[in-house]
Amino acid sequence: MRDAADTKRRLLAAATEEFAERGIAGARVDRIADAAGCNKAMLYKYFTNKDSLFDTVFGESVGKFVLEVPVDTDDLPGYAGKLFDRYEEQPETLRLAVWHRLERPDGKWVTEIVLANEIRLHDLQRAQDEGRLSKHYTPMELLVLIQSISTAWATTNSELGVRTTLSREQRRGLVVDAVRRLIAEQ
Amino acid sequence: MRDAADTKRRLLAAATEEFAERGIAGARVDRIADAAGCNKAMLYKYFTNKDSLFDTVFGESVGKFVLEVPVDTDDLPGYAGKLFDRYEEQPETLRLAVWHRLERPDGKWVTEIVLANEIRLHDLQRAQDEGRLSKHYTPMELLVLIQSISTAWATTNSELGVRTTLSREQRRGLVVDAVRRLIAEQ
DNA sequence: GTTTGTCAACCAACCAGTTAGTTGCTACCG
DNA sequence: CGGTAGCAACTAACTGGTTGGTTGACAAAC
């Protein structure tokens, strides 16, 4: 019954859900503890406070993400499609990232993101040097474009009435096709 | 000295800043009243509660936005550039929209958005019918793509270390060029 | 018996929303 | 013109409930 590691894991899972849903200011510490089936004191023992709990949750979320969706420099449209799939299946990742950007603008940079990004930039650069990838955009420009296009549907305000009229497969198709067009030679 | 309309305007201005900065859950009603230089009770007289104050702020922000940035179906890259400019110069608009999407997912639809969107879709459709615009993407797909590309830089998490390394003009150039590529024939 | 995990109860600060009372403007009356 | 009644604009202080964070007592494992 007594399992510190498991308690910690349950707290993290509950916190992930709560933060993804409501953000930092909207999240309630009591609700997280309740959902984890344990006491608030545990939360403050394992994570020093609300903000640092969020940071842990976000770091963990990003860590999983970069492991699970590696960039394929020889198939950027396919990469964009995989990003799209991941955001569709686990929207918490994206929501946490948006909350992070809005609510912790000067929070410590998550090293997982910085490192993963440097590797991606380097890989793209090499693909361009070796002639496997169009040089029309710089590696950084490519990353920004692919990122924004793969999250296009998720970040569109619902007023466009868009979510309902197109199937997931159609929306995915647009993402893949748009990236294909961007990196096409000429 | 006693000017109801002006008090209301000051409250709206203060609320816009506070909500854009901190979102709904993070905003403080006292802070808004203080910044507006008036009493909290005034806020509750003119706007019934915090949520409806946010709705008013957001509706007003969107209303101004759609008036100031009309779509030009014959120059979509230029339209994307204007969107980019507007988001650079008045980031509150975009921030409010993101807070809205995160914190009021089932709030009432802002009619300004719905209407403006219908008009845009219709205009794009006609441009395609008259052969002035590529039919590769549907009007709705075009809107979603243009929207996401023009906000690409603003919605990229700072971990990419991107904001500092490229000038505003360079970032704008990318947005315009990407849209140009997407709607190019062939 | 000592360390470690757990919890109920507690606290001070905070926060959205209310109320009872005051102030300044103005339209009407003499 | 001078006085004043009425009303909208405004305010200070309060309320009931919530929130992040703490603590001291107890229980289980070793």
Q: Could you walk me through the main structural features you see in this protein, from its secondary elements to its overall organization?
A:
The structure is a homodimer of 186-residue chains. Helix content of chain A is 70%, strand content 0%. By secondary structure, the first copy, chain A, is an all-alpha fold. In chain A, helix 5 packs antiparallel against helix 9. The longest helix of chain A is centred in the N-terminal third of the chain and has 23 residues. The interface between A and B is large, with 46 and 46 residues. Chain A binds a DNA duplex (30 and 30 nucleotides) through helix 3.
Q: Outline the biggest β-sheet of chain A.
A: none
Would you report the number of β strands of chain A? 0
Shape of chain A: elongated
Mean pLDDT of chain A: 91
Structural class of chain A: mainly alpha
State the end-to-end CA separation of chain A: 64 Å
- Strand percentage of chain A lies at under 5%
Biggest interface and which pair forms it?
A-B, 46 and 46 residues
Give the topology string of chain A: H per helix, E per strand: HHHHHHHHH
Q: Flag low-confidence runs of chain A.
A: none
Identify the quaternary structure here: homodimer
In helices, the fraction of residues of chain A equals 55-70%
Total DSSP helices of chain A: 9
Radius of gyration of chain A: 19 Å
